[in-house]
Amino acid sequence: MKVFEKIFKFNGGIQAKTKKNISTTSPIKQFGLPSKIILPLRQHIGKLAKLKVSVGDHVLKGQLIAEADGNVSAAIHAPTSGKVLSIEKQLIPHPSGLPDFCVEIEPDGKDKWVQIKPTNWKKIDLEKVNKLLLSSGIVGLGGAAFPTHLKLNHGKAENSLKTLIINAAECEPYITCDDMLMREKTNELILGIKLVHEILGVEESVIGIEDNKTVAINLLTKAIENEKNIFLKIVPTIYPSGDAKRLIYLLKGIKIPKSQRSSDYGIQMFNVATIIAIYRFLEFGEPSISRIVTITGNLRSPRNYEVLLGTPLKEIIDAAGGQVIKNNTFIMGGPMMGFKLPSINVPVTKAMNCIISSEPDMVEEKKPVLPCIRCARCAEACPVQLQPQELFWFSKSKQLEKAEEYNLFDCIECGCCSYVCPSNIPLVQYYRFAKSEIIEERQEQEQANIARERNEFRILRLEREKQERAERNALRREQSSNEDKTKLIEEKRKAIADALKRIEAGGEEQ
Amino acid sequence: MLTSILIVIFLAALIGIILGISSIKFKVEGDPIIDKIDSILPQTQCGQCGFPGCKPYATAIANGAADINQCPPGGDEGIHKLADLLGVEYKPLNAEHGEPKPKSVAVIDEKTCIGCTLCIQACPVDAILGSAKHMHTIIEKECTGCELCLPPCPVDCIDMTPIEENAENWKWKYPVYKIDKSSERRVS
Ligand code: SF4
Ligand code: SF4
Ligand code: SF4
């Protein structure tokens, strides 16, 4: 059902060139088997997954390689069959450019599946579904990589969810993986929405989509014609409409305050690709082993690929014809929120939604950074209604407490402020710096508190031990002196007795 | 006139009594200033400040028996914070007490360790596990890097290894853009 209900516009935001048509002219292509698979053990927010294989093992496609370590973690599965070549630190697609633990698999070419089985999701309760999803390895595929099972936790039982929102906004320029998925897997998406709708027990499902995706909008409109509880809402193309809180406001007019979650308001949100992943897992038993990646920008043949996780990025870039203008600069994610990749010798991960081969005008060094002129354009553009120029000032001068006071942590790092800044100040980089500085400080404080406690405990322990020792010694002394006394008395008695005997004897002698 | 004076006097007396009673009733346990100082100190418990731990040093600062620049692990930042808290002038770290070092943890070479337990006795935060004659290990998470376990070890099997940066503890760096002041502005 398509509705033309009111859209609640948020403040700020920007309208940038979307550059989406670069990668939407060809359909999604199956990349196939790469020469090797490199699977980082952390492709999600949370703890490193716990290894379940050893070097030399033969693994099947879909086999568990590492399981979720605790609740805030996600499992990793083998994307194809083959041999585990190594388990060691390798370069991963992370802004740090530092290596992390990876399992390398040499594909055997057979691509043989482990036995997978569908779940009878209609019959089992949410808790069970949750447990199953924990083993599925599914994380938010929109780029944030937040473990999906955690989002299902707030279902039926506690506070009832009313609305399922499907985030199909895909508001960042260049990125088209969700758009293409919606065009090519329309039916699967609708089936997925119905499935999640049912397991969450919501009343309505709302797909939020930007008005620039006309093909997908038409297909979806047709597909939900006869659905009573699925709605399509078209929002204007204003970045960052795909940000969770912005989209909720756009669609429902609800502002979620900072300390609360959307589930507190009866709303849960999933990205398009995540919905399909949940569907494929519950319906067919397929764990998370592949994803769609937009390979775009300055390349000979940009397009979307469906790739196995762990595929070396370089192989995909080569398949896309390589860079037209060589500058060896690649961005992971969108141009607004993404980061420069340290190298393309990294594997595809669950968070990799888009790779942009930088166009010459994107190479930042070209634009000189000038001082802030306090024009407040950044404040106008900020969708969270922060004061970016103040945040910049406090972050730059490392007045971190002040930055926090000005709600630094509400900043969604959308980059609107940097985008409009006439002085080309890389504002978001300052916010990221300030945030990680504050987070580290907090962790240090926490550690110091633990150390203080342990030290105090030790001092108490030593004191107690000292006291106990003193008591023991005192006791011993007392005991020994008691013994001494009885001994002495006995000795004396004996001496007296001996003397008496002698006297008696002597008397006889005399 | 007189009544108003009387009222003021009465009020003053009343407030005085209330304050007096509440100061007795709500007496704060411990010395808050010592705790405040202690919460700034890094809790490495290394003794480089010349006191047997952070709390004793905090106490000494509070009593005016020690300067604020004697804690190398706290570094410059710590001194600044202490100066702010106490309202005194910042002064650079007193080099007599040592230099700040990158945060490290102790690692016991488990092959060499003879299980003498001397290190356990030296550790201020009980971060070493092991029993007599058995090899010992350090609980990395709890180790403060104080180095107090190094000197007592008779076989020199403990090493300090700096905590290296990895993808998990990595932080965003301070942006290194030069702000171009020389070039003429577009908006003037
Ligand atoms: S847009 Fe740039 S120059 Fe203008 S106030 Fe914000 S930071 Fe300063
Ligand atoms: S990056 Fe942060 S401060 Fe800048 S516009 Fe976005 S939310 Fe506002
Ligand atoms: S020098 Fe060591 S013991 Fe003294 S305050 Fe600093 S960390 Fe604590």
Would you count the extended β strands of chain B for me?
Answer: 4
Query: Which chains share the greatest interface?
Result: A-B, 41 and 35 residues
Strand content of chain A: 15-25%
Number of strands of chain A: 17
Q: Give the overall shape of chain B, derived from the CA principal axes.
A: elongated
Structural class of chain A: alpha/beta
What characterizes the major β-sheet of chain A?
6 strands, mixed
Reading the helices and strands of chain B in chain order gives HHHHEHEEE
- CATH superfamily annotation of the domain at 32-97 in chain B: Electron transport complex subunit B, putative Fe-S cluster
Cα distance spanning the termini of chain A: 137 Å
Main beta sheet of chain B: 2 strands, antiparallel
Number of helices of chain A: 12
Alpha carbon gap, first and last residue of chain B: 66 Å
Q: In words, what does this structure look like?
A:
The complex is a heterodimer of chains A (about 500) and B (about 190). Chain A has about 500 residues and is α/β, with parallel strands linked by helices. Helices cover about 35% and strands about 15% of the residues of chain A. Chain A has a 6-stranded mixed β-sheet with strand order 1-14-13-17-15-16, covered by helices on one side. In chain A, strands 2-8-7-4 form a 4-stranded antiparallel β-sheet, with no helix packed on it. In chain A, strands 11-10-9-12 form a 4-stranded parallel β-sheet, with helices on both faces. The longest helix of chain A is centred in the C-terminal third of the chain and has 83 residues, at about 425-510. Chain A is elongated. Among the domains of chain B are: about 30-95, 3-methyladenine DNA Glycosylase II, Chain A, domain 3; about 100-165, Alpha-Beta Plaits (2-Layer Sandwich), CATH 3.30.70.20. Chain B is about 30% helix and about 5% strand. Chain B has 5 helices and 4 strands; from the N terminus they run ααααβαβββ. Chain B has helices at about 1-25, 30-40, 55-60, 75-85, 120, and strands at about 105-110, 130, 135-140, 160. A two-stranded antiparallel ribbon of chain B has the order 1-4. In chain B, helix 2 (about 30-40) packs across helix 3. The N and C termini of chain B lie far apart (about 65 Å). The interface between A and B is large, with 41 and 35 residues. The structure holds iron/sulfur cluster (SF4) (3 copies). One iron/sulfur cluster binds near residues 372, 377 and 389 of chain A.
